[in-house]
Task: structure prediction
Amino acid sequence: MPDLCNISFPGSDFASITLEFNKNLSEHLTIQNSPVLFGCRTGICGTCLIKIIGNIPPPEADEQEMLETLAPNNPYARLACQVHVTGNVEICRMEG
Ligand code: FES
Result:
């Protein structure tokens, strides 16, 4: 279990950042340090839809339901506001 998780944004101009294990992305990503935009931060607006590759827990039922609407059949799609990082991840924005 890593103490620190590396968050990188391939394909963007943003540098990688480091978060402590199990931190929620929406509490630490800002317009200054990441390409991810947030709206509601509660998993209902879909603004924060991302493609994420790395070791993170699977979505809860509510998030899964949203993902099936916003990005059906994309196993890497997640709502950034619902993600806790538990390993190194790569994040790209997705257009909803
Ligand atoms: S910010 Fe609204 S779903 Fe994540």
Notes: Residues 55 and 87 are 5 Å apart (CA to CA). The chain is about 10% helix and 30% strand.
